[in-house]
């Protein structure tokens, strides 16, 4: 099977790769600073692109992975609501959960037999 990357796939990968790096940076740095807020908003913007573009990546309709993208969107939106209401622990839980969920999806995406594995390694 020859794997070809669609426009949605290019958009998805172009957003997810920096989102993983920026997300790790945001989580590792001091919280509440102007840099944290600015990079956090950049991460949120990238994650919105990642999650929305996931709905355009489908072989035979929607699958359970699309439910994870939806859950990620809800988590990120809830995290924004929580920080606006000064619920720091809930904000952190939502954002860490969204980041870890995205990282786990990335690991799953390169598993043998998955599209990205085929695209990258031809297996």
From TrEMBL:
Keywords: Membrane, Transmembrane, Transmembrane helix
Transmembrane regions: 6-28, 40-58, 64-83, 95-116
Pfam families: DUF2306
Stretch forming the signal peptide: none
Name of the protein in question: DUF2306 domain-containing protein
Lineage of the species this protein comes from: Bacteria, Pseudomonadati, Pseudomonadota, Gammaproteobacteria, Pseudomonadales
